[in-house]
Amino acid sequence: MSSEQRLILATRNAHKVTELRAILTEAGLGTGLELLGADAYPDIPDVKETGVTFAQNALLKAHALASATGLPAVADDSGLCVDILGGAPGILSARWSGRHGDDQANLALLLSQLVDIDDAHRGAHFACAAALALPDGTEHVVEGRLTGTLRHAPAGTGGFGYDPILQPDGETRTCAELTPADKNAVSHRGRAFRALAPHLRDALG
């Protein structure tokens, strides 16, 4: 790939931009590739997530950025799916409390809904759909998952979203207590973007 190659990450979430850069670099896509967040194009409006699945929303965002910039674009849509809530909050994870992106309010509401639920029934998983869209309309979408159990109270200061309450299977730490490298190795987003990496290599040359 040439030194001029650019790839747009369809998110204005600084935490996600940092995380995705690390994941793609680890997957061997950092050399000769400039990774930009959507903030590099402030005139492009945010995309309404009207899909009813993670994959649909990820593709909506990736296609919108690819069309607006004329560059390859990647996007993800992810969330927390709680077993006893039938998979909720799911695609509504970021706005579960009614205010988009209010992590503390979302955490507080979810924990209050599960306050009387025993550990044996607190199973949940993070789900992520990662999408690649090219200006010519070509698209690829893959999914990743991280299963675990929900804690009764937040623990850890790393990560974002629901990371402080999901303890991955086989771990004693929550996602917010993991180092960035440990988290990327097992996370739903890391798994999804590593699966997308071969398609990125083919698209970028």
Task: Describe the model.
It is a single chain. This protein is α/β, with parallel strands linked by helices. The chain has five helices and six strands; from the N terminus they run βαβαβαβββαα. Strands 2-1-3-4-5-6 form a six-stranded mixed sheet. Helix 1 (14-29) packs across helix 5 and helix 4 (180-186) packs across helix 5 (188-204). The longest helix is centred in the last third of the chain and has 17 residues, at 188-204. The radius of gyration is 17 Å and the shape is globular. The chain starts with 5 loop residues before the first strand and ends with a helix.
In short:
This protein has helices spanning 14-29, 54-69, 103-113, 180-186, 188-204; strands at residues 6-9, 34-37, 73-82, 123-133, 139-150, 166-168. By secondary structure, it is of the alpha/beta class. It is globular.
Order of helices and strands: EHEHEHEEEHH
Sheet having the most strands = 6 strands, mixed
Strand order of the largest sheet: 2-1-3-4-5-6
Cα Rg: 17 Å
| Quantity of strands, as a count | 6
How is the secondary structure organized here?
Elements: E1 6-9, H1 14-29, E2 34-37, H2 54-69, E3 73-82, H3 103-113, E4 123-133, E5 139-150, E6 166-168, H4 180-186, H5 188-204
Parallel strand pairs: 1-2, 1-3
Antiparallel strand pairs: 3-4, 4-5, 5-6
Helix pairs in contact: 1-5, 4-5
List the keywords.
205 residues, alpha/beta, 5 helices, 6 strands, 21% strand, globular
